[in-house]
Design brief:
Length: 227
């Protein structure tokens, strides 16, 4: 798949990507799921990349998600300084649920909604076939959060265009999460591309040594055509 560095706008501004590396909220996989994909998207996709070191344990939901919301607002507020398009901000992440509400007083008039979302072997449900660690960490066993944080129940037609992928042999997060995400996006009429590769397991970064080696190429092509 050929990926063009010339994006759809004529302003000369780059799209921005905010990367949120995984790590089970115990650590941030900065190199494998941060620096490497960031370099790939800057080099081959023409993006301006930002890597978010969000709060981890013992900071429970919604603090990590608030960090992501604030990052989106920050990049949008400083778009001119970074020479990026404020209407083409992508998040590439492993956080289970991003917040669309304004979280910070200084950015209260700036939207925290990303224009596109890339999800790597995501947890999108806490009701069935979910990742136990993410469930316990995000909900802290509080009642009412199981459904609230299950993204599959909250996708509407204004949800950002989405790319997601998973590996069928993932021993950490069941690939059925990505399949249910695909169904929800399809039902809501949201532009999306969800892929499930046969092998690769979990936490593979760019995955060049696995059957998922094309995921970043396919994601870039998808956003290039639609963003």
């Amino acid at each position: 798949v050929a990926v063009s560095k010339e994006k759809r706008n004529t302003s000369g501004l780059k799209p921005a990507v905010i990367l949120c590396p995984g790590g089970g909220y115990e650590m941030v996989s900065f190199y494998n799921e941060g620096l490497q994909p960031a370099q790939r998207m800057e080099r081959d996709g023409g993006y301006k990349a930002f890597i978010l070191c969000y709060r981890i344990r013992p900071n429970y939901y919604p603090l990590p998600q608030m960090d992501l919301a604030r990052a989106v607002m920050y990049v949008r507020a400083h778009a001119a300084e970074y020479q990026v398009d404020p209407n083409r901000i992508v998040i590439l992440e492993n956080l289970e649920k991003f917040q669309k509400a304004d979280m910070v007083e200084q950015y209260r008039k700036i939207s925290a909604r990303p224009d596109a979302v890339g999800l790597l072997y995501p947890v999108i449900s806490f009701t069935s076939e979910y990742h136990e660690g993410s469930y316990i960490y995000n909900t802290n066993e509080k009642p009412g959060l199981r459904e609230k944080l299950s993204v599959e129940f909250h996708i509407t037609s204004d949800y950002p265009m989405t790319y997601a992928y998973a590996n069928a042999d993932d021993g950490c997060v069941p690939a059925s999460n990505t399949m249910r995400l695909n169904e929800a996006l399809e039902k809501a009429g949201v532009k999306h591309l969800c892929e499930v590769y046969p092998t690769g397991d979990h936490g593979i970064g760019l995955g060049y040594h696995t059957s998922a080696k094309m995921w970043s190429e396919n994601m870039l092509a998808f956003f290039d055509q639609n963003l």
